[in-house]
Amino acid sequence: MAEEGFWTEKDMKFITAWLQDLVAVGYQQPRLMAILTKGNRLRLWMARMRVTAGRHFKMAFAMLSSSHLCIFTARPHGRQLFSQRTSSKLCASLNGAKASTSIQTVVRRSGNYKPSIWEHHYLQSLSSVYSGEEYTRRAENLKKRVKMMLEQVMMDPLDQLELVDVLQRLGLSYHFKDEISKILEVIFSNNCNWDKWEGENLYATALQFRLLRQQGFHVPQDVFKSFMSENGKFKACHCGDTKGLLCLYEASYFSIEGESILEEAKDFTTRHLKKNLEQNICMDKNLAMQVSHSLELPLHWRMIRLENRWFIDVYERRPDTNPLLLEFAKLDFNMVQAKHLEEVKQVARWWKNIGFAEKLNFARDRLVENYFWSIGVFFEPQFEYGRTSAGKVNALITAIDDVYDVYGTLEELELFTDAVKRWDINAIDQLPYYMKLCFLGLYNSVNEMAYDFLKDEGSSIISFFKKRWAELCEAYLIEAKWYYSGYKPTLKEYLENACMSIAVPLMLVHAYFSIPSPTTKEALECLDKYPSIFQCSGMVLRLADDLGTSPDEMKRGDVPKSIQCYMYETGASEEEARDYIKHLIDETWKKMNEDLFSVSPFSKTFISMGMNFGRVAQCLYQYGDGHGVEDGETKGRVVSLLIEPIPLV
Question: What is the rounded CA–CA span in Å between residue 208 and residue 187?
C-alpha cells in the first residue's frame, strides 16, 4: 500500500506497531480478510461502536502488508468489539476483493530458552540454621583464636606467608584485612627473604611474589633470575619440584605486559606440570588434584567464592591441616551462605513482583544465576546492598539483552533506545506493550536505587545511571543493525562495541555506588569516563562469553562473535580462532594486573570487584553457556554456594 501511495512508509510502521500492541494487551489475533479494490484505490474502513457506557472506541482496519485487512473481533475478557450485524456487513462488502496475496507478519526469533529450574515457592521455602546466635558466638570465639595466630611476632616469614595463603583460599581473610596487610607490608619492606631463598626455595620465592603482587606491591620479576640458567631458561633441576612448579605457575599469572621472565615461567611450569601429572612424578593424590585444578584454570582467574568452597575440601584432606582454621572456615562459609540465601529470596520477590518472567516469556528467566554473579563480585557479608542491587541490575540486563538479541524488530529497538536515552516516562506512549513493561521496570528500579543513594548519602547519581544505560542500549542497537543488514564487522569493530554491550561499565557504575565506601571527586570524574578496569574487565567477560556461547548463538542467527570475526578476517580455522581469543584474554589480564599497582582514584576493593567480573565470566562460561543453560555445571555450583551447607563434623 505504501508503494501505491495510499499510505506512507511511516504510516505503515505506525499502524503495524499499533495493531501488535492491541494483540499484546489481550485482543484476539486478527482475522485476515481481502480488501476491496477499485480503480487502484483502497478503502480504509472505519467503524465505531460503544465499548463502555459513555465511551467510544474508533478502530481503523489497517493493512499490514499489501492486500489483507486485520479485523479485531473481540476485546479482552470476552467483550465483543463489533456487533454481529456490523461484522456481517463488513464481510459481505469484502467478498469480491481481487487482492489475494498473503500477509507479511512480523517474524520474531526465539532463543529457545528453557524456563527457570528455580521455582519461586521453592526458593522462598529454603532456610538455614546457621543464622542463629549460637553460631555467631562460636564464630567470634574462633576468630579471636585465629587472630592470635596472626599476631605471633616470632613466626617465621614463610610460615606467615603460608598462613595468609591458607586464610585467603579458605575464604577467611576478609576477617583479618588489617593483620594481613601489616604482615605483607613488613615482609615487603624488609626485603630480606629474596637473598635467603635465592636459587634454593622456588616454592617460597614464588609464594611471596604472588601474595605481594596480589596485595599491590610491585615486586620485580628479576627475583626469579637465580632459578634460571645463562640461556634465559629455567634450570632443569626444578623440573621435579612439583610443589615449587605449581606455585611458580600461579605466580606467573600476575605478570604485566613485557615481563618475559614470567612468560618463560608460565611456559616452563605448564609443560612440566602436565608431564609430572601424567607420569605421577613427585606428587601425592592431594597435590595431583591441585595441579589438575590449576592447569584447567589458574587461581588468579577463578571465582573466589567457588574456589573457597573447593579448597575447604582439599584442605581437610591435607596432612598438615590446622583443625582450628578448618572449623572456622566451615562455620563461616555456612553463616555467609545463610545470609546469601536470604538475599536471593529477597531479590526473587522483587523479580516476581516486576513480572518480567511471566510477561516476557521470550527472555531468559535467570534470577538465581544473576544473583550468583553478585556473589562472585563481592561475597563478603558487609556488601549485602551491593549484592541485591547487582542481582536486580543483572536480571534487567538479561531481559533487555534478549529484547534486542531475540524479540524486537529494528523499528521497535530504535524506539526503545530513544526512550532510554531520553529517560522520560512519556516516551513509553510510542512503545509496544512488552517494551512498556521493560522500560517501566527499568525506569522504576534504577530510579529507586538512585533514590536510596540520595537518601543515605545526600548526592544525586541518576545521571551516572542514565548515561550507562543509554550507552548499553546504543551498543545493543548497533549489533541489531548489524544483524538486520547482514553486516560482518571486523574484529576491531566488534570488540570496540562489545566491551560496552557486555554491560560491565554499567554494572561497575552501579556497584561503585552500592558499596559502603566514600566517594571522591576524582573517582567520580574517572567513573564518568571509561577507565582501564572497565575496559579490561569488559573485554575478559566478552571474550569468555564468546568462547562459551558462540556455537548456540550462531545456530539462532546472531551477529558474528569474536571467533567468527577473526575467522572471516584471517581465514583461520575455528580452533585457531579460539586459541587466538584465549591469547587475547591472557593479554587483557596482563593489562588488568597493572591496576593492582597503578595509582588510582578507586579503592582496592573496587579494583578487585572489576577483576571479579572477569573471574565470574571465566567460571560461568568455562564449560559452555553457564548463564543461559542453568541445569548443567551451573546448577551444582549454585547449590554448593547457596543451598547446601558444609557438614561441620
Answer: 9
